[in-house]
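agent> step 3/5: call structure_predict on target 'Thiolase N-terminal domain-containing protein' (Physcomitrium patens).
agent> reason: downstream docking stage needs a structural representation; sequence fetched in step 2, passing through unchanged.
tool.input:
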Amino acid sequence: MFGAQSIMLGFNQVVVAGGMENMSNAPFILQRNLSVQKMGHVQLKDVMVHAGLRDPCKGRCVGSCGELFLDKFCISHEA
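tool.output (status=ok):
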């Protein structure tokens, strides 16, 4: 992002950029309101599966978005 911005702003003509994923350190979450539910079964949810890898508009896995795009525009996997 910073490399692209520096090119768009005219600070650089060429930028070498890198990054790393940090999904391995994503926490687990508890879904309950502690002020209402003081005890009982609570299930841990992986925040990456629950929030990070879900399309916020449709609620489906973002991995399926590419498949939907290919189907919609009749593009083969080979293309």
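agent> step 4/5: record observation. The chain has one domain: 23-79.
agent> proceeding.
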